[in-house]
Amino acid sequence: MTSDNDLMALRDELREFGAVRGWRVYHTPKNLAMALIVEAAELVEHFQWATPEESAALPPDKAAAVQDEVADVLIYLVELADVLGVDLIQAAHAKIAKNALKYPVPGRL
Q: Which among 37, 39, 20 has a CA at the least distance from the CA of 29?
């Protein structure tokens, strides 16, 4: 499980990574959202036409490629949240609470 500190450390590492390369100027919400969706599409591509069983039992080379794409999605999401001032952990907890109200457990209404 990831802690707030792990996520903040990742955010800080990404800030530094982009800053020393002069990339931060390009890290606008629009550009980061677009990059995020491109990486998500690259992730989906690995599962295209796979059966549910095939998608759950990836061969090592495909699993490694999927891991890279998952990392890319996370990186762009963290960078987008950073630029927009979104606390990802707090936002996720708030969304889970909203979803719990919207989708109550059957039989517990």
A: 37
